[in-house]
Design goal:
About 45% of the residues lie in helices and about 10% in strands. It is α/β, with parallel strands linked by helices. The protein folds into three domains: about 10-95, Hemocyanin, N-terminal domain; about 105-260, Malic enzyme, N-terminal domain (Rossmann fold, 3-Layer(aba) Sandwich); about 265-450, NAD(P)-binding Rossmann-like Domain (Rossmann fold). Strand 12 and strand 13 form a beta hairpin.
């Protein structure tokens, strides 16, 4: 059992610290030694007994938002018990602590706020960002998730309410890959909001002014990245839910000078690529022979396209040929070379083709093997579109990845019904199994939590100084290889979520190996790399305080 040094903390200072608190599980000896006698009910209980109590209370909550509030409140008072609860009930609770419920929690963040968590940086902190980071009580931060709240899930600009996303992402880092809670730092870069409803809300907790743009925004971001590297030199910075206008250019600006990545671009790409690789075992069509049509040409879609191209290049496919396998439809139709309105990140996938105005027409013209929705627009995979995909393909891959659930391009039931049960379906948010013609189909959830926690684990274990596209390709390959034949028989192209820590350990090991092989770390590769990676993973059992 782990022994923890309390550095002089006693009494209420321990009980009020969620990283140290064990509640009624403090032993008689610990209560006497640490000045806790009289501050707790007299009966000593085990963590297992506490687990029964908190799970019972959780199930008494009637709505997903009430359950979210309960879990966050538990996390704020007892981190170990929170993670023990979540890890034991991950399939049930992941949709609460993350998508789809976290989206509603962000929308109501100022109304349900109870206790601050993480750091807030505003335009008024320009010139003193380093001092803010130095004030953080944990010195060995290894993962930072930062957002500016401009594109929260598919909900748009939620300003400072977006803090729920870094908090939720970091909870998944711990629950899914064993990153120690003390090594996680959520940051809200509050640069205002253009959401008029929030600006008019007296309970909104962010800076009530229009969103910052231009040189001052860039200066603030640059100061943050520089300061983070100085204060937390072993930390990886994850950019999360930035708007398209900033996401691509910030990734391009910092990826070669800092240990950083953008989960919306690269993490989404990794989990989608893994799903496409898994479909090979059901369709017999290798990735090099697939044609993928995307609805949505923002950071998620283009990120997926870029990683597919990298994967095909590693298989020996020329880059120009690889790009021809990825086609995009945006709000103005098919992305083609003749369009004068294309922004920079779309140009590399603008092909020579006659203009096509609708998704259905694009499906008929291009005859794709896979359809990937990253549009944020619900019900855009219509019955006509799905039936066309099923007519063209014996087993069409149809991925409705937009979050939260209400924004999915189609539901699992619609997809299986309209395709006569032949579609290979995946979604961003969870859907229940669907029975069609007496066959039960289990939808795969293409959730980034299959990818980013394992990547982060590998980066931390290797102390890599960079995060590369090769790491995300490697993670996708490992994830696809983790899918069992039993999974595929159910129609599921991702592993059972109950195996997520096992899968994350495998991804972390492979990612760390990339770092060692490419000379991205000064550390020496352990002889038993998998054993070393697993040894670093946080276990939410209570330590001895002696």
């Amino acid at each position: 059992m782990t022994t923890v040094h309390l550095q002089g903390k006693r009494g209420l200072a321990i009980l009020q610290n969620p990283l140290l608190n064990k509640g009624t599980a403090f032993t008689e000896e610990e209560r006497d030694t640490l000045g806790l006698r009289g501050l707790l009910p007299p009966r000593v209980t085990t963590q297992e007994q506490q687990l029964v109590r908190v799970l019972d209370n959780y199930h008494r909550k009637e709505s997903p938002l009430e359950k979210y509030i309960y879990l966050i409140s538990l996390q704020e008072r007892n981190e170990a018990l929170f993670y023990r609860l979540v890890m034991a009930n991950l399939e049930e609770m992941m949709p609460i602590i993350y998508t789809p419920t976290v989206g509603l929690a962000c929308q109501k963040y100022g109304h349900i706020f109870r206790r601050p968590r993480g750091l807030y940086i505003t335009r008024n902190d320009l010139g003193r960002v380093k001092s803010l980071l130095q004030a953080w009580p944990q010195a060995d931060v290894r993962i930072i998730v930062i957002t500016d709240g401009e594109r929260i899930l598919g909900l748009g600009d939620l300003g400072a309410n977006g803090m729920g996303i870094p908090v939720g992402k970091l909870s998944l880092y711990t629950a899914c890959a064993g990153i120690a809670p003390a090594q996680c730092l959520p940051i809200m870069l509050d640069v205002g909001t253009n959401n008029s409803a929030l600006l008019a809300d007296p309970l909104y907790l962010g800076v009530p002014e229009p969103r910052l743009r231009g040189a001052q925004y860039d200066e603030l971001i640059g100061e943050f990245v520089d300061a983070a590297q100085q204060v937390f030199p072993k930390a990886c910075i994850q950019f999360e839910d930035f708007g398209n206008a900033n996401a691509f250019r910030l990734l391009h600006r910092f990826r070669d000078v800092a240990c950083t990545f953008n989960d919306d671009i690269q993490g989404t790409a990794g989990v989608t690529l893994a799903g496409l690789l898994s479909t090979e075992r059901l369709t017999g069509i290798p990735l090099a022979q697939q044609k993928i049509l995307f609805l949505g040409a923002g950071e998620a879609g283009i990120g997926i396209g870029d990683l597919i191209v990298e994967a095909l290049k590693l298989q020996g496919v020329p880059e120009a040929t690889a790009r021809q396998q990825c086609w995009f439809v945006d709000s103005k139709g098919l992305v083609v070379q003749s369009r004068p309105d294309l922004v920079e990140h779309k140009l590399r996938f603008a092909h020579d083709h006659a203009p096509v105005m609708t998704l259905l027409a694009a499906v008929e013209a291009l005859q794709p093997t896979a359809l990937v929705g990253v549009s944020g627009m619900p019900q855009t995979f219509t019955e006509e579109v799905v039936r066309a995909m099923a007519r063209i393909n014996q087993r069409p891959a149809i991925f409705a990845l937009s979050n939260p659930t209400a924004n999915a391009e189609c539901t699992a039931e619609q997809c299986y019904t309209w395709s006569e049960g032949n579609a290979i379906f995946a979604s961003g948010s969870p859907f229940a199994p669907v029975t069609f013609n007496d066959i039960t189909h289990v939808p795969g959830q293409g959730n980034n939590s299959y990818i980013f926690p394992g990547v982060g684990l590998g980066v931390i274990a290797s102390e890599s100084t960079r995060v590369t596209d090769e790491m995300f390709y490697t993670a996708a390959r490992v994830l696809a290889d983790s899918v069992t034949d039993d999974d595929l028989k159910l129609g599921r192209i991702y592993p059972d979520l109950k195996r997520i820590r096992e899968v994350s350990a495998a991804i972390g090991t492979a990612v760390a190996q990339v770092a060692f092989d490419r000379g991205l770390t000064a550390s020496l590769c352990p002889t038993d790399l998998r054993g070393y990676v697993e040894s670093t993973m946080f276990n939410p059992t209570y330590p001895d305080y002696i």
